[in-house]
């Protein structure tokens, strides 16, 4: 057996289903200048080197929405695994029901509160499709 260096093809991404009192989930629309432009996604982003998934998600939610989510309010919920370009996306989805502040679209085009059952009709990244039913069952 050789010790060849295996390229890291896994792309770890964290995302949040922020759930309001009516059981709706916050989605954001990806801007025109990004990959998968115009698609509706869960707020979140890539886990940077040296970060835990939870630290990365707390940072992304602050950058993208201007809200503070306490670590204890992030509940692991589901994951998705799908090819993404020359890498392989591993998307970790957390549920949060409590946060501080009012979410604003600081990076996305627009925000929208959506029931899981209504997400089937929205254009979302292919990796997110299996998460819709899982979310519907969990909420
Ligand atoms: N935040 C988020 N990212 C998702 C979702 N589904 C999905 O495939 N992704 C992918 O996961 C990656 C997240 O990266 P990012 O949000 O930090 O970075 P980015 O938009 O600048 O990505 P880019 O470099 O592809 O343009 C993107 O490639 C994005 O397309 C989702 O529901 N939420």
Automatic annotation (TrEMBL):
* One Pfam family per UniProt: NUDIX
Q: Which family does the UniProt entry place this protein in?
A: Belongs to the Nudix hydrolase family.
Can you state which reaction this protein catalyses? 8-oxo-dGTP + H2O = 8-oxo-dGMP + diphosphate + H(+); 8-oxo-GTP + H2O = 8-oxo-GMP + diphosphate + H(+)
Q: A Gene Ontology biological process annotation?
A: DNA replication
Q: What is this protein called?
A: 8-oxo-dGTP diphosphatase
Q: Which PROSITE patterns match?
A: NUDIX, NUDIX_BOX
Domain Nudix hydrolase: from-to ranges: 9-136
Give the protein's cofactors: Mg(2+)
Q: In the Enzyme Commission scheme, what number(s) does this protein have?
A: 3.6.1.55
Task: List membrane-spanning regions.
Answer: none
| InterPro entries membership | MutT-like, Nudix_hydrolase, NUDIX_hydrolase-like_dom_sf, NUDIX_hydrolase_CS, NUDIX_hydrolase_dom
Q: Which domain of life is it from?
A: Bacteria
| Keywords annotated in UniProt | DNA damage, DNA repair, DNA replication, Hydrolase, Magnesium, Metal-binding, Mutator protein
GO molecular-function term, one example from the UniProt record: 8-oxo-GDP phosphatase activity
């Amino acid at each position: 057996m050789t010790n060849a260096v295996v390229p890291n093809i896994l792309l770890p991404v964290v995302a949040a289903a922020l759930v309001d009192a009516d059981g709706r989930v916050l989605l954001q629309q990806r801007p025109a200048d990004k990959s998968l432009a115009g698609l509706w996604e869960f707020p979140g982003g890539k886990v940077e080197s040296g970060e835990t998934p939870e630290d990365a998600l707390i940072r992304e939610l602050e950058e993208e929405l201007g809200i503070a989510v306490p670590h204890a309010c992030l509940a692991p919920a589901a994951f998705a695994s799908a090819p993404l370009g020359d890498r392989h996306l591993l998307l970790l989805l957390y549920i949060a029901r409590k946060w501080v502040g009012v979410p604003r679209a600081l990076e996305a085009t627009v925000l929208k509160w959506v029931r899981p059952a209504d997400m089937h009709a929205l254009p979302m990244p292919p990796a997110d499709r299996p998460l819709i039913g899982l979310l519907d069952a969990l909420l």
